[in-house]
Amino acid sequence: MSTHKRTASLVLGSGGARGLAHIGVIEFLEANDFEIRCLAGSSMGALIGGIYAAGKLDVYKRWVSELHRNDVVRLLDLSFDRRGLFKGDRIMNVLKDLIGDRNIEDLGVDFTAVATDIETEKEFWMRRGPLFDAIRASIAFPTVFTPHEYHGRRLVDGGLVNPLPIAPTLVNETDVTIAVSLAGKAEAESKPTPSSREEQHSNLDVQKRIAQFIEGLQLKLASRGSEDLGMFDIIARSIDTMQTGITRSKLAAYSPDIVIEIPRNACAFFEFHRAREMIEIGRQRAAQALARE
After folding, report:
1. Which residues of 182-214 are buried (b: 16+ CB within 10 A; e: fewer)?
2. For the residues 185-213, what does the mean pLDDT come to?
């Protein structure tokens, strides 16, 4: 491949733990002579994008790759607030300790985090101010995290109105615009091998435990069969369905040069303990998309 670096505007979509695939995408792009000059993200895309823009993606990758199932639960801090189950302070403090907070305008990459202003019902772009204020607002998934108060605005997850924020990158002149959608077509899951059945059972168990914990906090019965959908599952899947439709509209309206799609059933919303797997999926899907270019 040529040693000439192609400049890129990178758009990172929302989708919970599937967003860990963004790490693999970024690693592949950098290894293949792309220079990311502009970056916009919603929700998990804002988190990964902001950490990359701060130059600390390798630090975050090492940390998240070591997370076990129980660690994910321990990062959730109860809010005792009707607006959301968790405050999000614990995870933000952990990330600040790892990454170090700084202002967006001081980052090495032009970065935009997208959140939703629930008063105006419009998307809100954050391009200045503390990085982790922007990230916290953009990841405020309804019912899970409380809204983030920011300069008199009440902000929630950016994926509600713009799960793939291509527009903020249009002001930058780069060689290509690359969009990473976490709402790709669902793919058939391979049959578990004998060695992976125990892992699959453990994954189902942790999802059930998280769902039961959340529902128990709201005085709901948690003794459901493994095939039943809990309240949180229904909320997450409903928002996923909505975001898939919006993402298709954004792709049709803006037509980025390269689209990298991560299957929407690659992992569940809270499966952050599957970081290594999702990073590899991101790397593979980036390679496939670039091969088609």
Report:
1. bbbeeeeeeeeeeeeeeeeeebeebbbebbbeb
2. 56
What pLDDT does 56 receive?
96
Q: How far is CA 268 from the centre of its chain?
A: 12
Look at the block and give the residue holding tokens 């090492």: 62
pTM for this entry = 0.83
Mean of the per-residue pLDDT values of the chain: 83
Calculate mean pLDDT across residues 68-86.
66
Residue 212 has pLDDT above 60, yes or no: no
The radius of gyration of the chain from alpha carbons, rounded to an integer in Å, stands at 18
Query: Distance of alpha carbon 126 from its chain centroid, rounded?
Result: 16
141 phi and psi, to 5 degrees? Answer: -60, 125
Residue 226: pLDDT above 70? no
Pairing of strands 84-86, 78-81: antiparallel
Torsion of CA 246, 249, 255, 259, to 10 degrees: 40
- State yes or no: pLDDT of 23 exceeds 60: yes
Query: Considering only CA atoms, which of 258, 10, 239 is closest in space to residue 144?
Result: 239
> What does the alpha-carbon distance between residue 76 and residue 63 come to, in Å, rounded to a whole number?
16
d(CA 150, CA 1): 45
Catalytic residues: 43, 157
Closest CA to 49 of 76, 87, 21: 21
End-to-end CA distance of the chain: 14
Helices 131-138 & 44-53 angle (0-180, nearest 10): 160
Find the DSSP H helices in 129-230.
131-138, 194-217
Mean pLDDT confidence for 131-141: 94
Q: Tell me the residue type at 197.
A: R
